[in-house]
Amino acid sequence: MATTTTKPPPAPATPSPAGEVSEVELSEAGSPDVGSQSSGSGGSGSGRSTAGSSGWVYHLGVNSIGHEYRHLRFLVIRGKTVAMYKRDPSKNPGIQPIRKGVVSHTLTVEELGRQIMNNGEFYYVLRFYNRLDQTKKGEIACATPGEARKWVEAFEQAKQQADYDLMTRGVGWNRSQNENELNLDGHRPRVRRYAHGLGKLVRIGKGPEKLLRQSSDLQSLEIINTNFGGDSGDAFEAHEWRYVRTFNGIRIFEDIANAKGGKGVLLKSVGVVGANPDTVFEVVLSLDKHKRCEWDMLTADLELVETIDGYYDVVYGTYEPKYLNWWKTKKDFVFSRQWIRGQDGAYTILQTPASHMKKPTRQGYERTKVNSSTWELRRLNPPGSSTPKCLVTHMLEMTPSFWDRWKRRHSANFDRSIAFALLSQVAGLREYFAANPALTSDSPSTVLKPKASDSLIIHSELEDSEPNDEFYDALARGESFEDEDSDDDEEDDVTPKTGKVKFKNVSWAIAGLALKPTKVILDMSQDNSLRRKRSALVEKSELVTNSTPVIIDSNQFHGTLEQAKSEDHSNSWSEPGGEKFMIRGKTYLTDYTKVVGGDPLLKLIAVDWFKADERFDSVALHPKSLVQSEAAKKIPFILVINLQVPAKPNYNLVMYYAAERPVNKDSLLGRFIDGTDAFRDARFKLIPSIVEGYWMVKRAVGTKACLLGKAVTCNYLRQDNFLEIDVDIGSSSVARSIIGLVLGYVTSIVVDLAILIEAKEEKELPEYILGTVRLNRANPDSAVRI
């Protein structure tokens, strides 16, 4: 369920929001790479943060008699304590929170994507639930996807605090916290009059307040890439772009290495737009004709046909006949839109031709297929500039014969074609934002920024003692007939408690990254001996080198997927080197330099390809598992990666990586193996790369590293000589959308994956590649049923 609102009128005395939180038992969240805004943030690795995050959200939920509600609330996170207010506590001293609780290490936060509310606008919804009990859940909605992501980061930092407290205070303390947890079905403690409650029944479920669309402007620090070339990732791509033409300040490129990537020619237009990616994203997806006609000369009307989920919809449109007036007939089209927001804040929008039963062919119109295209929006931070800038890339596929004809003759008809109009949309966006400076200005921040001498703006509410309520309890309770979150103030005059807050932040919390450019060293000239030398140094630090290595005979281990005998061997796997991946170098924390990866630390010994009606966990414990064999028990350590692919049926891609020597327990790998789930979630990283396949699949998958523990739910099983990581790809709406696209082309795709443990401290650098795998055109029909 989602919430929407219109552009804000002059700010009223009451709060203006960004999205709202549902009543949920917030007891678990992912671990963040970059924190949501905090004043006085901690430094790298061991720094301690003394700040929190706050802002307006929409609280979504269903009350006890089944009516949906969405209320404007002010949310505050301090340490692992979360409080919800009706008004901004910084402007209303002494106000009591209407909800209060703590984030536990079992909280999960999922981005549900873009959803439309009753007033016709879109909001971006977050779902909270307990990983151990998913019946405890709730939702909030935010004004922009970027803001939603920053709230996720804020909750992930709170989860790190909870995990740190669990380690320092012990399991018993955590258990006692949970034992004091209030009943989820109970109402929040407040004095009520029964008759007054009945009198308010007439107002229940009448719909949301008039919502004001204002971003909370939670500030997170991100690494911003200043490469204006357009393509940037952690793996090398096969595209070879050649500059063709410039018009209206926009560069046009042709991919001359796309012979195997599709049936058409791949083109792209690239330009710099003076706005942040969140704003550009909303403009590109907007269906408002009056706004769209200011930058899109091709489209006459757009209509939303169906919303599949928060990341996927179907749209019907017509072309503008005044522009392409040489057409003899009116033309319409149907296309689908899928969008992805990466962990680096970049957006990818996939647009493909589609059909829909609600939109059959229309009399007087000729149904056409739109060009398959993608939008890519990436934040820029030009040196010496504080104004928001975004690199916009619009990529599309067109007929080779038409493109070749235009290149040879420079036909004037190309300037009146659909392809040209699509490529020109980037120029239109640039001019649109230049002519509307109000759209590019930063929204007024509603984030609390306490001074060092006044670090407790709301100290009367968050006390020394930890609240006994889990946050999802604090959000999800509601048993009385009246709406628990009604905006009446008759009970807000509770006497404030006195006290101070101790900000207990995690000493190993992830460092805030300054807005500096990422440098990439393409050390392609280094020879194999240098890479082997670096790999030997990594092995020396991560493994116990004074022990006798175990000889691993790959002939002793056989998975259900065959090892490739040649590059053309379909439905097989191989183990590529790390030279096609970019990883953090020794000086990354100071200059953000990345270097070419070396040889993997662990050896890939087998790959299994299973299918099952239900999700299959704990593969290593199965009696017939490779890990349970006598040969495997002699191996010092085995890492099992179980990628759980949602489909009908479900698929499991299981990779087994072996170490020839015992793992050094004090090394990064050793701490990862025996660490907490929160630590693993914050470090377990994967770099994908589509080596061969349809170009749109390449754009959807990308080449950027992904912290899997932040993107999807990862479960860890540590026993004997192995660690198994079950990666539930179906736990994320975004991941399900991407996998759905990939499975449609999987038999023609060659994909490389690199597995790493992210280095966040100087002593952990440079990074190293833990393991790699290449999957050659996997065939779903060949998966073994279990």
Automatic annotation (TrEMBL):
Keywords: Nucleus. InterPro entries: EDR2-like, EDR2_C, START-like_dom_sf, START_lipid-bd_dom. It is found in: Nucleus. GO terms for cellular component: nucleus. Residues 1-50 are annotated as: Disordered. Residues 241-406 form the START domain. Gene3D superfamilies: 3.30.530.20. It holds the Pfam family START. GO terms for molecular function: lipid binding. This is START domain-containing protein.
